[in-house]
Design a protein that fits this description.
about 120 residues, mainly beta, four-stranded antiparallel beta sheet, about 0% helix
Amino acid sequence: QVQLVESGGGSVQAGESLRLSCVGSGFPFGSYDFDWYRQALGKERDFVALIRHDSTIINYKDSVKGRFTVSRDNAKNVVYLQMNSLKADDAGVYYCGIVMGGQRYWGQGTQVTVSS
């Protein structure tokens, strides 16, 4: 079955960096677009970044452009989100996700805490 596992979250100071990873299994990883979403406490899950299956198209939420970089290694079944110059507003639970056959799949999420 489809499995997505995020890791790499943690607690950092504003201005520091984190790299999140999302490992996928149970499906043809290299055939699917991946996205990253963030859910702050008490708020809805919001789009952060998207990477196409072949990395030809990458999109970001405006507020993270120039600070976050999404990439993937299809040989290793992993998608990354490099987050630099972190701000307090970047805090939340980060989820990676795919859409397959019209159904949305999410990982369990990884917590990012940013102290100012």
